[in-house]
Amino acid sequence: MEILKVSANSQPKSVAGALAAVLRDNRHAEIQAVGAGAVNQAVKAIAITRGLVAPNGIDLIAVPAFSEVSIDGVVRTAIKVYIEPR
């Protein structure tokens, strides 16, 4: 499964386009964000994506989870969101 990594500087519309493309190919996707700003951008992107795929009759669900990732040798807690059609 491809993991889309979102930062606080990510553009939600761009992430939404990438997320919609992954969902078309794989029927499920995963977004990873570290930090409040990144999580905010990820949630915005998920909301935009729901609007993009809704005309195709797809209703998305998002399941958040915690994950630990290593960034520059430091272990950080990330939020991972699994996204799939209902």
Could you please describe the fold and organization of this structure?
The chain has a four-stranded mixed β-sheet with strand order 1-2-4-3. The mean pLDDT is 92. Helix 1 crosses helix 2. It has one domain: Translation Initiation Factor IF3, CATH 3.30.110.20. The chain is built from two helices and four strands; from the N terminus they run E-H-E-H-E-E.
Descriptive tags:
86 residues; alpha+beta; Translation Initiation Factor IF3; 4 strands; globular
Topology readout:
Elements: E1 3-6, H1 12-26, E2 29-33, H2 36-53, E3 60-71, E4 74-85
Parallel strand pairs: 1-2
Antiparallel strand pairs: 2-4, 3-4
Helix pairs in contact: 1-2
Shape: globular
The helical percent reads 25-40%
User: For the record, what is the CATH homologous superfamily label?
Assistant: Alba-like domain
Give helix and strand order, one letter per element, not per position. EHEHEE
Largest sheet: 4 strands, mixed
What is the strand arrangement across the widest sheet? 1-2-4-3
State which percent range the strand residues make up.
35-45%
How many β strands by DSSP?
A: 4
Distance between the termini: 18 Å
- CATH level-3 fold name: Translation Initiation Factor IF3
CATH class: Alpha Beta
> Averaged pLDDT, please?
92
